[in-house]
Amino acid sequence: MLIKLLKYDWKYSWRLLFLLNGALLLFSILGQLGSHLLQSGNYTVMSILAGMYILIYTLLFCGSLITTQIILIARYYRNFYTDEGYLLHTLPVTTGQKIWAKFINHMLWTLINILCLLLSILFLAGPGEWKYMFQLIPDTFSAFSKTLGIHPVLIALGGLLAIVLALSFMIFSLYFCISIGSLFPSHKVIASIVTYVILYGVVQFASLAYSIYSVFLVDRKIYTVNPSGIPVDPIYPSPAAGTFGVIYAVGMFLLLAGSAAFYGVSYYVAHKKLNLD
Amino acid sequence: MNELVTCRNLTKRYGSKFALNNVSLSIESGKIVGLLGPNGSGKTTLIKILNQLITPTSGEVLIGGSPLTVETKAKISYLPDRMCLGNWMHVADAIDFFADFYTDFDRSRAQDMLDKLHIRPSDTIRAMSKGTKEKLQLILVMSRRASLYCLDEPIAGVDPAARDYILSTILNNYDPDATILISTHLISDVENILDEVIFIREGSVLLQSSVDDLRIQNGKSVDHVFREVFKC
Predict the structure, then answer these.
(1) Domain of B187: which CATH number?
(2) How many angstroms from the chain centroid is the CA of residue A216?
(3) Which residues in chain A have Cβ-Cβ distances shorter than 8 Å to B85?
(4) pLDDT one-digit tens code per residue, B150-200
(5) How many CB pairs (< 8 A) connect A and B?
(6) Inter-chain residue contact B52 with A89, CB threshold 8 Å
(7) Chain B environment of A86 (Cβ under 8 Å)
(8) pTM of the model as a whole
(9) For A88, nearest residue in chain B (alpha carbons)
(10) Which residue has the higher pLDDT, A243 or A247?
């Protein structure tokens, strides 16, 4: 049943999101092709065109990021807590399957959206810059690797895991806010937005506090190894790596625990507190 | 006859207001039952609880002897009092959707009914008139071979010709072993098809009786009894 739910969620979202992300990619390719004209045309006209292009590209870039999320969140809200809920909640499927289908579709489209945003930057930069840009990735990993004394592959895998967990946290927190909003007798959308604003504030404050604490910990460890602050050869494993590992693990645990808590509340509300008007 | 629906001390409260107040009733298999009452009497609330769209404040509901679960959802075919199909869907999508999720959905029966109304699979729901959307939803619901059909106000706000179509669709497509629970306040239109009636007012069941018994006891049609009982 989860696959069937996913099928209809995908069927609903793909056209609009494909168009949105496709438009961004197409526009970035057009920009790259157009940039050659800029070099040979009238300077004033081309400057105006370039300015307009940058404005539209920025709007498309930000628009695709925000619109993708709005479409997927609205889908969750409409399917669960409006008239469309009369169809979804009478299907012979479990509450967990309903939430997971929405989550998987949301996660997939968010990842596709991020990929399209990165590709659009690549297309816009043009093949001449690709070599430099691709070199930037291993260089960054290498720098991290030298500082922390951790293998670059581990850093890459850890980074991927962090992205997935952070996105899960974000998606489930949105579902949580919608679920809390649905408990209000009226103005459910406003209640959801207010819940989100409060939650956002709390999460930002907690993240900041944890970041300050983490920086203090790492800094102290690095200085313990190398008081002069001058980079030394990687040490496998270095005390800094150990500290970083703890910070990373705690961070991932917090993201996972937060996601689980948000899922739990969303599940409870949809399963035990459902009251469709 | 087997007891298909059992409600015991069912209460739904919104703050201090009771939408349902200690309702106990049972409905047997193979009957067409009218859930009759004025607007705001609790008909829709009861039907929504049976379909797990509302969580009762207290009390118990059993379908075929089992508490409400995913399995009981598979036994109930529900026609809500509003459009619940996504506007983005084509008719073919809606048929696929029902066929995918309900093993008792009869695709060919649905297609036959749609053909008679000249509704094409490629039609989008967004472009349909309100009446056509309602008919599509009814066709989908009645194309299932369910044990219980819960039809919430199926003839409210439609013209007499459409009412006839809706009632004939219901009668021609339900399984005789199944039960139909129709909520309405338009008694005269449904009276002739009902086996049993439940009168509900302000969240409480006033009476539950077979239509024949009610007529014999009162010497009047159900519509007249309803008008007397619910006189303002």
Answers:
(1) 3.40.50.300
(2) 27
(3) 84, 87
(4) 999 888 777 788 788 888 888 887 788 899 999 988 888 888 889 999 999
(5) 58
(6) yes
(7) 53, 78, 80, 82, 84
(8) 0.86
(9) B84
(10) A247
Contact A4 B101 (CB under 8 A): yes
Q: How far is B231 from chain A (nearest CA, A)?
A: 28
Q: Give the chain B residue nearest A84 (alpha carbons).
A: B84
* B53 to A85: CB separation less than 8 angstroms, yes or no: yes
Instruction: Provide the domain count of chain B.
Output: 1
Give A142-200 as a 3 state SS string.
Answer: HHHHHHHCCCHHHHHHHHHHHHHHHHHHHHHHHHHHHHHHHCCCCCHHHHHHHHHHHHH
Q: Is residue B161 packed enough to be buried (19+ CB in 10 Å), middle (13-18) or exposed (0-12)?
A: exposed
Residue B7 DSSP class: E
Q: Spell out the domain ranges in chain A.
A: 1-125, 127-277
Place of tokens 């009861």: B46
Q: For residue A263, what are its two tokens?
A: 């899922």
Domain residues for the domain of B181 are 3-229
Q: Please write the tens of the pLDDT for every residue from A143-196.
A: 877 777 778 788 888 889 999 999 999 999 999 999 999 999 889 999 999 999
Residue B197 DSSP SS3: strand
Long-range CB pairs of B21-25, under 8 A, 24+ apart, other chains included:
B21/B202, B21/B203, B21/B204, B22/B59, B22/B204, B23/B59, B23/B200, B23/B203, B23/B204, B23/B205, B24/B205, B25/B198, B25/B205, B25/B208
Nearest CA in chain A to B152: A86
Q: B60-114: per-residue pLDDT in tens?
A: 999 998 999 999 999 999 999 888 888 888 999 999 999 999 999 999 989 988 8
Among chain B residues, CA nearest to A185: B14
ipTM over 0.95: no
The amino acid occupying position B35 is L
